[in-house]
Amino acid sequence: MTRGIVVAVLALGLAGCSSSDEAVAGDEPITPEAIAAITQEHVDLSPVEVTAWDVFTRELGEPSPGARSEYGDVSLAVVVAPTTDSPLVCATPTFFDECVDDTVDGHDVTIAWQDLEPEEDPGVVYVIDRRDGEDVAVQVIGPDVTDDPRDLDLGVPLEDLAALVTDPRLSLTTSQEVVDLGDQVELSAS
After folding, report:
1. Parallel, antiparallel, or unpaired for β 124-130 and 74-82?
2. Considering just the CA atoms, what is the radius of gyration of the chain in Å?
3. pLDDT single digits (tens) 33-77
4. How far apart are CA 62 and CA 83, in angstroms?
């Protein structure tokens, strides 16, 4: 299946979906495909490529499903991980230049970032929801991080990123309905 068809199938399949603030009960392990489908509900861009993302699994040594969506000028990687004391979620502020707890459009999140390193790295922004027993994070790469990301155009509104990481369907275990939502997503080989 070509990328254009994958995007069209994803967009059509998600048109009737919506999120809820109520907790999602279930004992099904969340899949990268379900994470990608939920991500697309919160992002008003069409992905050119969607892949599984296992950085947290490798770094933490525990299953931490994730999905990376490429949107031309910006890349989003969303992960659900067991609660950890890792610097990747600002448990210790050694990985990022700054970690700030904030309320964005009614969502309590941590915003973390590494600044631009000229001619080396554009910088990175994370928006993190530290929950009881798990952490949900979105990594944003693309725009140059030259200042507090709350004052920058990240390519996706910060409000949408905060709503994404606090979506109760993003959990290590979720409902069959959420897993089925992911059946509409075909991941590219990474």
Report:
1. unpaired
2. 16
3. 999 999 999 999 999 999 999 999 999 999 999 999 999 999 999
4. 10
